[in-house]
Design goal:
The structure is a homotetramer of 354-residue chains. Chain A is of the alpha/beta class and 354 residues long. In chain A, 33% of the residues lie in helices and 19% in strands. Chain A is globular, with a radius of gyration of 20 Å. At the B-D interface, strand 8, strand 9, strand 10, strand 11 and strand 14 of B face strand 8, strand 9, strand 10, strand 11 and strand 14 of D.
Chain lengths: 354, 354, 354, 354
């Protein structure tokens, strides 16, 4: 598309929406024309989010009530930062109006309406679109994103789990069964909603697991793993809430496909893993492979679209442990959506992101 | 009263109520018979607050809907941990039933119904009780508390401001005008209520002032200062919210009544201040006077009923700066209420508190 | 022993030492006579830790240089809160002087000097004591503790891992192999030492793994698991650092010994697990078994000697997931040491702890 | 100067240095050629700070031992992020080599060597440069910065205090005496140095004052206020440490030059203040004037070079209260230094900063 591309954000008052505003205001090839929010309708953007007041473009923006016709008139590409279920209500008519839609909700991430119903507990509102949507994980669907009309941007946990596992699974380095993903998430992941559970004094000085053993994000994680593995993959996933604003740290417990029996075999396997990751990610601008002396730390990725990945083989247990760190709101949500936007529009993939 | 005294907590699901539960469960002379909460009615206490499950007494307690008759039947002393306005609705009938009432709300802290209306924006619900209530600041109203029927436990900010200032004002060491109180409070001070402003991700990595220049607590602070000064005292008060669960740190800017002009006079004034504080507080179990090498730190008082006080004279400006640190929920609320309870019942004042 | 028992704390200026001071000052059957610290020698206790200034007993205490003779003269029971390696230097002569020693370091937790050398990288300083020391996990070594001369109090991570696993392993409910322990720890676990890695601005807004795959605590964890399992147990253990002062949350991934194939078998296994935990812990004052609607949260145990345990069976993966939460400095260190002290001296086990 | 300008950062491993790296790596007109650090000499930049690894330019950078000759060869403009005293040792020879120097330390902020000695407790190492250095507060010294050889970038507290006060003082709206500045700072302000006082577990859940009543920053604050007031100004300043990584919130207590006696006069004064701030800052890209419904919050400025300013008149006390929020490491240090760099080199002032 021709720069600048006119863009809209539907649901711009939540954490992902706010981050989209930040990224798109500073984007060299996007012109943010519309921000909507039922709650903040009528309010100037700079009033609701004072931190944007210094961006010249932000000064004329005002939250609007979300109206499909007016959104479609003012934007070629529309970002949906809405709850699942609600997103589909906007995606369908916006696509009919000819807009490209980048949906940050879970509504179009699954290819199977029955799985959606199993995990999200309501019938899928637009099952006919499921096969047309592209899963917006650029490192794996770059080609499809280029010509997509509807991009389903991945969830925060799935991104932190899929990027480290997919290359290993694709090359058969690990077994597809027995995978365990243990994740720690910042509180922004719960969204900007009034809920006693997420009050400062409830989360600070607290660490707790939640939403397991059957978290909703399992559905898209297992879909993508199964696709690459060529077999049905079922994983264990335990999310935890920790007192940081941002960031997901994921620890993955994996079984090498071929057991190593001594230091020589362990070294050989290590070299295979290194090569595998290099092949997959050495040229990826947002994937940072750490060496054997460094470990991922969420503070190294906060505010950026990068994911850090490191791994260790354990001589005592024979396991491969892989760790990743990302900003749940950037690479795990809004940054990744902008990365897809760049690909979709033919801009350099890092535009507005580095 | 005869130990153990049967006590009830009305509104036991907020932060002050929860802390009252903790203190009264471990109190050697109290028997907690009733905890009420509209929201949690019917729930076992140990279910709502798992941390109390290990206290044997807690295991049989269940939240009840607040009912005056049944509270009065089961408790001799009733603690009200309710919003202002609501507290009076319970205090009036409970007093008629013969209960002693310790109210943690603002409803009975003022002696003047018009001032209440000015600061709390509604007519006082029971003005006839205002002259009968005792302001529950033990260091100043110990005698009155002994025979009180209704104790109005002070606010968190007022406690942190009054205890450091009152002795100086009483002895005429500082001028009654021009006082500035700058306070930092933990987020628990905002209460356990669903409000986006107090979400973890809104308060963490944030510092902000709020509720000034006319915060409600000014009314009781100025009432007590004026009483001791013998003249109308108007102060400047700026509360700030900082990302800690608990604690208030107050910095007071005061003008010595007699200006010092040199090191000798400054030293003499310092000795006078030291003597003044020693006279006032050396025997107070919960007031900790720091020496000239230490400064108050909220982490030293968290979870305790103590307040730390330190002061410095500034040779450059001629001002006296006094700092205090307390736990807003303990000395600033529930601990102080239990201290009053001990006095009221004739128990050692530190029972259940050290 | 006869109450009050005279006690000393060697190394009282670190986090565990400070917490021992707190617990022993308020202990009804202990008289804290000596606190030592090379760094703080000569300083009044109340000066170094202002928060203890309000305890009457604390006012006469002063940090001493650690001297075995004078410690032995003034204390019947000595708590060592020293780094590993250093602790043994004090334990040996103190035992010779007839003191009972409760060591919070790792020096006497292992029964095998070679394992010590493997994990702690130096020769064991007093291997002859290894067989005489009792591992101070009261829930499993209560009888041995009663007559112990030297108690090796368990590490923080081991406590959080052993208490949930041991009953399951003992009853053969889980397989001894394939165990994964994923733990999150507060920063106090790193000790009160000047190190850039643990500065506030390095830890806040950060989550990271460290010290794996071969953390030192593995040695004592595997020793105790192996003993109960009757076979050599090797586990996977990944500790993480999260920005809380206190608390360890551990997530355990376990394989039931007998696979369940349907809801009926799953329910039966669940009942077996419930029964197993009840048998093991229903009468333990510091182990809190949560129901199937609650999950452990570090904030529920902070400042207490309790550990929370909950479990879930995953119908999708066949795994048993068990979670625990404890205060790393209390049940994970000083509180557990005091619990052993109570047992050793014949006092009620909860003295000074609830 | 001609873009890109070659720049060096001396002392790049502290918090200010690291932030300079971030800002200069993404700067469109700067080419970062040299980063020095005694501690990290020889290490690749991307190894010490993994978060920069994704910047292409960063990949070839390696920390060097600071050597004046080689720095001067490789850079036209040199940023010094060194402790006071040390900075002057580099500034002098670098200036002789013809470099422009932007010093973030306190070494050249004062015009008077005696004042330096009074506040910094050692003789000034290069007093002859004091009159040549320009105080790098762009909003007030823009013209002088353009031709400066040596820019003394202001301290973090001074920036947060001077920007709100200077316009009021210049226009005579407030009295020059009696000013009180009460500031809250994040822990990064203490620098990246191993010190027990700044450990996570010492700062988290803590609030405390420090370094008053005679903090070093008073010297430059009073120098600048006095200059604008045309009379010697002595202020009260109390810094506090709060548990955030970044940010300074300052509350200023000011006395209007002309007392207002009623609502009409108060309104008139308010309009005068509004006009004064608009005149001073409406066109400043980094000063954000808030309206009467908003208050500064550090979270709105974190990571940006903006300062938020708001004010309130207090009808009860007659005082003017002004609040400001800034990121102590950006507008309070490295961002402001880059702003000066932009002015010095003739680039748009917001280059690399918005």
């Amino acid at each position: 598309m021709k720069s600048p591309v006119k863009v809209a954000i539907v649901g711009a008052s939540g954490y992902s929406g706010e981050e989209l505003v930040r990224l798109l205001l500073q984007h060299p090839h996007a012109e943010l024309t519309t921000v909507t929010s039922r709650q903040q309708a009528g309010q100037p953007l700079a009033k609701v989010f004072p931190k944007f007041a210094s961006h010249q473009r932000a000064q004329s923006l005002r939250f609007a009530d979300p109206n499909v016709d007016s959104i479609a008139q003012q934007a070629e590409v529309v970002f949906l930062a809405l709850p699942h279920g609600v997103a589909a209500e906007f995606a369908v008519p916006l696509l009919q109006h000819g807009c490209r839609v980048i949906d940050l909700s879970a509504d179009f991430r699954l290819r199977n309406a029955a799985t959606y119903q199993e995990f999200y507990a309501h019938e899928h509102p637009a099952p006919e679109l499921l096969t047309k949507a592209v899963y917006g994980l650029p490192e794996y669907y770059r080609e499809e994103i280029k010509s997509a009309k509807l991009i389903a941007s991945p969830g925060c946990y799935p991104t932190s789990i899929l990027l480290p596992i997919l290359p290993l699974l694709r090359e058969g380095i690990i077994k597809p069964n027995g995978i365990i993903a243990d994740s720690l998430s910042g509180v922004s992941g719960a969204g900007r909603k009034a809920d006693v559970d997420y009050l400062f004094a409830e989360c600070n000085e607290s660490a707790r697991a939640y939403g397991f053993p059957k978290h909703r994000h399992l559905s898209e994680i297992e879909q993508e793993l199964s696709k690459v593995a060529g077999t049905t993959v079922t994983i264990q996933f335990t999310p935890h809430l920790i007192p940081v604003n941002r960031g997901i740290l994921t620890t993955l417990y994996l079984a090498p496909a071929k057991h190593f029996n001594n230091a020589v075999e362990m070294k050989a396997l290590g070299e295979q893993i290194t090569a595998c990751y290099k092949t997959a990610y050495a040229h990826e601008p947002f994937v940072r492979l750490l060496d054997d002396q460094s470990l991922p730390d969420t503070k190294n990725v906060t505010g950026t679209n990068c994911i850090e990945i490191a791994w260790r083989l354990d001589a005592r247990t024979g396991r491969l442990i892989v760790l990743s760190a990302e900003d749940n709101i950037v690479k795990g949500a809004s940054g990744q959506a902008v990365q897809s936007f760049n690909i979709l529009c033919g801009f350099p993939e890092t535009s507005g992101l580095i």
